[in-house]
Amino acid sequence: MQDRLQEISGGQRQPTFMMLPAKSSETFPTPDYSHLSTKDFEEVYEPAEDTFLLLDALQQDVQSLRTLRPLICLEVGCGSGVVITFLKKMLQSPCFCIAIDKNPKASLCARQTSLQNLTDVEVLTSDLVGPLRLEGSVDVLVFNPPYVVTPSEEVRRSGITSAWAGGADGREVLDVLLPHVTRLLSPSGFFYLVTIKENKPEEIQQLLEADGLQSSVLLERRSGPERLSVIKFERKPCAVT
User: Fold this and answer.
1) CA distances from 228 to 56, 147, 198 (A)
2) pTM of the entire structure?
């Protein structure tokens, strides 16, 4: 993560972090998003510590991802498009990558980021996975949700607030998606989720375990007052059909 922050800020930001043992020595650059301006980031979530933690977690899991040979990858709430672009370039295989965001400006930025990095990502504007009919087809599902604990009314605001306002327990947006995760995932699919301590991640793991998914924490890191985690979910062996 320090390397990724240095790419963006010249090494000025130095958060403390804890990293679990890496599974891969391969490293991949953060996608170029220099085409996006300060004005863009007044309306779209700017890549930050949680974004870079998610990139690091995907990079750490690259061998599992390549072994999976995914055909369909989906990022919900794509923002600037940095994560789905990174995933597409890292996989180095033909896969259909979809990015979805309810913010039209974010959809535009994600499309521009894909083109800036010479990747092909299908970008849609919609709330969560509303228009998609991908039951049992998503090999890689990624979500860095609005996780900040806020008053519930902030969740319904438009613009940049919707990128971080999570309502009660920071879970109001995530809790809409959770019941659909098992339905969306392919039999061997992976779900990568960013959480903070206030989201009650152990409870999330228990909820999805009841739906037949096992989980593991890939990375944990402290950034200021936030304790960030990336959790990976996949079907229990007995749940694979």
Assistant:
1) 12, 10, 10
2) 0.88
